[in-house]
Specification:
mainly alpha
Length: 435
């Protein structure tokens, strides 16, 4: 399911900058367009995450995937519309661009997809539901590998299909078809991960709502339904121990990667003069490395090394890779891409596993939803900022990402040392008490 969803999404990545340019936009418009998805995901993710705690993960996944399908159909509609100029602008801040009717429709498509695109938080909550402490790292690693596999095939397929006579229409049509397949797979193959005992006794309104699972809750044993389930608001989630720090790391990670994803396509299409195929190969290579790291390597390391240690190593590698990306050399670019893929493959699944075991499990959907919102907010700022900064700073913008990952390493390192110190104090206290 995750592979199918990512495959449909990643198909458009290498060609989006070319679509925007062909319809009158520039790097500034590309950054704004990129920010639309995370901005509305920021709004929709907590709603979908909390809703999945109430009515079930499966139903919300179907709803969100249906929204993605509608968004792709709007995307295709944009190609059938005339390139009617609505307004144009040419300033030092925005550069020169023409806003056309097809571009407006693409904006609407990204907005719609963004609002229903909080399904990653629901998918993470689903994985948390079915995982134990022993296999949580491996499961998130496998999920990360499936994501990477989607990113391997998506950009490569997009580059090849975009070179046909129909151009970008073919990969976009394929993305819509893949989304439709995802709806079918989720509806027919996916089992609900969090089924509740349904109380059918009595004909009062509450039991009627629960019979139809409108008040779906985390139930681990029959009859174990809380009369007053924990609240799931933003303030309640932030009171969970460890959550504020992890949300800060969530935000900073997405901010750094947004600078990368905003700057790389512009860098590739302008300074490097790459085609969609060249960019697709570069992204596919990155995802291929992550498959190897998140699959067999992470499965072995997770049994021997803690999540915190893997996050520290991964964030250090990411900092180094972003620094190398700022150097104008094709060989160094691929070295940086390799380090970035290894670092991301080690860090992100380990971080998600740590987040999944932090806080009350009965509000895991809300925790994942608000975490996804932190990432969406960072992406919103990062994509716009990255597009603007690249116009003036060019590849130096990647060095900013390097500094952000150094901050993440420092934050997690200090937290790791505090945790070890507390463990040592507790162990000493128990020893003295035993003596």
């Amino acid at each position: 399911m995750n592979f199918i969803g990512v495959l449909g999404y990643s198909i458009v990545i290498p060609i989006l900058i070319f679509i925007v340019a062909d319809m009158g936009g520039n790097g500034f418009i590309y950054g704004i367009l990129g920010a639309m998805y995370p901005f509305f995901q920021f709004i929709g993710a907590p709603i979908l995450g909390s809703l999945s705690d109430r009515i079930g993960r499966k139903k919300v996944l179907v709803i969100s995937q249906a929204g993605t399908f509608v968004a792709w159909m709007l995307f295709l509609l944009a190609f059938a519309l005339p390139k009617t100029e609505l307004w144009s602008q040419n300033t030092e801040l925005t550069g020169s661009y023409i806003m056309t009717l097809p571009l407006i429709i693409i904006f609407v498509a990204r907005i719609f997809d963004g609002f229903t695109g909080g399904n990653i938080s629901v998918a993470n909550a689903y994985l948390s539901d079915i995982s134990t402490d022993e296999d949580r790292n491996k499961n998130f690693g496998k999920m990360g590998a499936s994501t990477s596999l989607g990113f391997v095939l998506g950009p490569a397929v997009a580059g090849l299909l975009a070179s046909t006579a129909l151009g970008e229409l073919v990969p976009l049509g394929l993305a819509a078809l893949i989304s439709l397949i995802a709806i079918f797979v989720i509806s027919t193959k996916l089992r609900e991960s969090n089924p509740c005992v349904v109380d059918t006794g009595g004909l009062n309104t509450r039991s009627f709502r629960r019979f139809f699972q409108v008040e779906h809750r985390d139930c681990y044993q029959e009859g174990d339904i809380e009369a007053n389930p924990p609240k799931k608001g933003w303030g309640r989630v932030l009171k969970e121990p460890g959550i504020p720090l992890l949300y800060a790391v969530y935000f900073l990670t997405f901010l750094a990667f947004s600078l990368f994803y905003a700057g790389l396509p512009i860098y590739a299409s302008t300074l490097l003069e790459w085609t969609a195929i060249d960019l697709g190969i570069f992204l596919a290579y990155s995802s291929l490395i992550m498959i190897l790291v998140q699959g067999p390597l992470l499965s072995r390391l997770s049994d021997k090394i803690s999540n915190q240690s893997l996050i520290l190593v991964g964030s250090l590698l990411l900092s180094l890779s972003f620094f190398l990306l700022s150097m104008d050399s094709l060989i160094i670019l691929y070295i940086a891409n390799t380090l970035l893929s290894i670092g991301n493959g080690l860090m992100w699944p380990s971080f998600l596993s740590l987040l999944a075991r932090t806080g009350n499990p009965q509000i895991q959907g809300a925790i994942q939803g608000y975490g996804n919102s932190m990432g969406s907010m960072a992406s919103m700022f990062g994509l716009v900022l990255g597009g603007l900064l690249f116009e003036t700073m060019e590849t130096t913008v990647f060095a900013i990402g390097s500094g952000i990952f150094l901050v993440i390493t420092l934050l997690m390192g200090v937290n790791f040392l505090r945790g070890n110190r507390k463990t040592a104090v507790n162990t000493t206290g128990e020893t003295v008490a035993a003596g």
